[in-house]
Amino acid sequence: MLTYNDLTVNNAYEIFDKCKNSKAKYWGFKEVGLPIEQMKKLYRYMKECGKTTFLEVVAYSDEESMDGAKMAIECNCDYLMGTTYSDSINKLCKDNNIKYMPFAGHVVDRPSILKGNIDDIIAEAKSYIEKGVYGIDLLGYRYVGDAVLLNQKLISSLGAPVCLAGSINSFKRLDETKKSNPTFFTIGSAFFDNKFCGSFPEQINKVVDYIND
């Protein structure tokens, strides 16, 4: 994710251009930080480079969530992550061939944090899968409780794709991520903070190799 503290960085295009030949196949950013025309330009470039594209919307009201969904359509994204779930967004994504992965649990603030009882979060996630969403955006390492337990329990019990999003910023957490085995996971701020030691593309390749080892 070309984001820092849940905001898209203003030089996202330049960073992607330097990293386009790295081993990362999935790329995205947030709905806040760039003008829409710059977002569309960057997503077009990502697709020209053969990448799968994600927009993550950190929104908690129905109106803001719908605005984010419309933004994903305008940008021709492959995946919409985040938002407060709604049937209207789910239908809109289906009608526009976008894979929808809403938040599960009580998500607040920006940078976002996740609150709630683990069993309740899992039940909520399952209810969205039953409504036909593609998968779930789980802010596992933003959870105020036992993040490792939440990640393992939800991913193992859901039976649908999960993106483990946010605050994966160490090899220890990469080890835990490998064990919980989500379909996707995101790293953004950690690369900007050089948590994996190297240039941006070097860090990406290091993480991909580590996960695949």
What would you note in describing this structure?
The structure is a single chain. The radius of gyration is 16 Å and the shape is globular. A four-stranded parallel sheet has the order 3-4-5-6. A three-stranded parallel sheet has the order 9-10-11. The protein has a two-stranded antiparallel ribbon with strand order 1-2. It is built from nine helices and eleven strands. Helix content is 45%, strand content 17%. It has helices at 12-19, 36-48, 62-74, 87-95, 118-130, 147-158, 171-180, 189-192, 200-212, and strands spanning 3-4, 7-8, 26-30, 52-57, 79-82, 99-101, 106-108, 113-115, 136-138, 162-164, 184-185.
Order of helices and strands: EEHEHEHEHEEEHEHEHEHH
Number of domains: 1
Query: On the 0-100 scale, what is the average pLDDT?
Result: 98
Q: Strand tally, please?
A: 11
Instruction: Kindly report the CATH topology.
Output: TIM Barrel
Which structural class best describes the helix and strand composition? alpha/beta
Rg from alpha-carbon coordinates: 16 Å
Largest beta sheet: what is the strand line-up?
Answer: 3-4-5-6
Fraction of residues in β-strands: 15-25%
- CATH class annotation: Alpha Beta
Task: State the helicity in percent bands.
Answer: 40-55%
Number of helices: 9
Can you tell me the residue ranges where pLDDT is under 50 for at least 5 consecutive residues?
none
Given the C-alpha coordinates, what overall shape results? Answer: globular
End-to-end distance: 22 Å
By CATH, the architecture is named Alpha-Beta Barrel
Main sheet overview: 4 strands, parallel
